[in-house]
Amino acid sequence: QVQLVESGGGLVQAGDSLRLSCAASAPTFSSYAMGWFRQAPGKEREFVVTITWSGGNTYYADSVKGRFTISRDNAKNTVYLQMNSLKPEDTAVYYCAAVYGSISPHPKYDYWGQGTQVTVSS
Question: Phi-psi bin for 88: left (phi > 0), alpha (psi -120 to 50), beta?
Answer without folding.
Answer: alpha
